[in-house]
Design a protein that fits this description.
Shape: elongated
Oligomer: single chain
Distance between the termini: 60 Å
Largest sheet: none
Length: 205
């Protein structure tokens, strides 16, 4: 039976509410009853939309995992050479991260409670979308013939993931300025190796 507009709205409200609760008070401290109460629905009605808390968390992860910022950054990035493009993507990701950095807790819950079981399909979806955005973006830029686009996509994901993990596991609340500098360091390290590789291949022709 297809989901009605009202049913879809209720389902989305549950997911949005659960996301806030998982982030603010953790996975174990969040019950289905508390999600229902905060969503303004009866506890029993929750099961018309989800089988339980695990399923709700999976849907939260699909919708709000911080990797979802990557395709947008790739699409918006500008630059006439690899250095400019990568640094602009890093800058955009850094700003997005500062606004939504508490969502790293969703990633940590997934790793601890579910051993990362649900990450591969999310990674595949995000990586595919990011690569499509990258293809479309680079096709409009003069540097596009020099780039290995798959490596570029991997690099952008690596930049975001690296900063995500360093700020959370080190227990440091990075300022926006320092966060952007950190992204620049990551991108510079990548670019040094990437450009050297391109240069070697061009010399070998």
């Amino acid at each position: 039976m297809p989901i009605t507009d009202k049913g879809l709205a209720t389902r989305n409200k549950i997911i949005d509410t659960a996301c806030k609760l998982f982030i603010s008070q953790g996975y174990h401290a969040t019950s289905t009853r508390s999600i229902a109460q905060a969503s303004g629905i009866a506890a029993g009605a929750m099961y018309n939309h989800f089988h339980g808390k695990d399923e709700i968390f999976i849907e939260v992860l699909k919708k709000y995992h911080p990797w979802h910022e990557i395709p947008s950054a790739v699409q918006k990035a500008r630059g006439d050479n690899p250095e400019e493009f990568t640094r602009d993507a890093a800058r955009i990701l850094s700003k997005a991260w500062q606004k939504k950095k508490d969502r790293i807790k969703l990633h940590l819950i997934e790793l601890i409670e579910f051993q990362g079981t649900h990450l591969p399909p999310i990674f595949k979806e995000i990586f595919t979308e990011a690569n499509e955005e990258l293809e479309n973006n680079l096709a409009q830029r003069p540097m596009q013939q020099r780039l290995s686009r798959s490596k570029f996509g991997e690099a952008i994901l690596g930049l975001f993931f690296g900063l995500m993990m360093s700020s959370e596991f080190m227990g440091i609340d990075l300022s926006e300025d320092f966060s952007q500098i950190g992204f620049q360091y990551f991108s510079d390290i990548y670019l040094q190796g990437y450009i050297n590789d391109v240069t070697k291949k061009e010399k070998g022709k």
